[in-house]
Write a structure and sequence with these properties.
Helix content is 40%, strand content 24%. It is α/β, with parallel strands linked by helices. It folds into 2 domains: 158 residues, 3-Layer(aba) Sandwich (D-Maltodextrin-Binding Protein, domain 2); 96 residues, D-Maltodextrin-Binding Protein, domain 2. The strands form 3 sheets. Strands 2-1-3-12-4-13 form a 6-stranded mixed beta sheet, with helices on both faces. Strands 8-7-9-6-10 form a 5-stranded mixed beta sheet, sandwiched between helices. Strands 5-11 form a two-stranded antiparallel ribbon. Helix 2 crosses helix 8 and helix 2 runs antiparallel to helix 9. The chain is globular and about 60 Å long.
Length: 283
Amino acid sequence: MRRKPCSLLAALALVLCGAKASSRIDLVVSAPGYPGNTVQAQPTMDAFAQEVEQEAGWRKGRLQAKYFESVAGGTEALAADTSAVALVPLSFLVQFGDKLELEPRLLAVPKTGPTETWALVAGTGRLTTDAPSLAGWEIVSRAGYAAAFVRGVVFDDWSLPDNVTISFNPGILSALRKAAGGERVAVLLDGEQRAALNSLPFAKDLEVVYESDPLPAFLACTVGDRLPEHEADRLFAALLDLRAKEGGADVLEQIRLVRFETLTATQLDRIRAAREQAAGPGL
């Protein structure tokens, strides 16, 4: 008779563990400055979540995916207790990863490739290829919300002057026009934006004055310890296998990805170094 309370407690523990294992999981895609918004993207996010949860063998509706194009929206969503997985660009991880307890687990490969090379563009002949020439200038970029990433990671071998202004602006066309017109504005482009540069009618009035080292583009991360390790392994395995699943490639294309890849030791070292660079003095 004395053993019954223990049995009841054990049974209760099993119930609670089972409830936790079947509880809702939020996957937050936060890409400040990239196309679309939360409402427009929701049907695509729903389709993505459904494919992933099927591959993971979870019940329908357990995985919820949401997209946020704003910094505030993404950081607020990831701070919520139900958010367990994040899909973010390296700039976001570097800027907010420590605060939000983000740990990279997979490389998310967009159509432009697994790495991103950032290019600084200015009016032809307006800048020399060294940092001091940027004194008093404005750098405009879709990564401008992450100033520590821009200063410490993109320009890792340049020490930008303190009076350089770094601005966040997803619509960089107007900034490129200003640069082409001779204003003290330089534009930091990602690979996709740079590929379109030559199509501009005023492209001849612009030149690339700096290129970053290739950096990991997008990353799938855990958020703290909100997801038990065995559940995280199951989810990331499903992401890795998604491309081979019937209909999986189409769903990945809708979220502008080609596949997920396991991060190599070299890539993890580069991400770790980027986080350390961005946390340096004055950044």
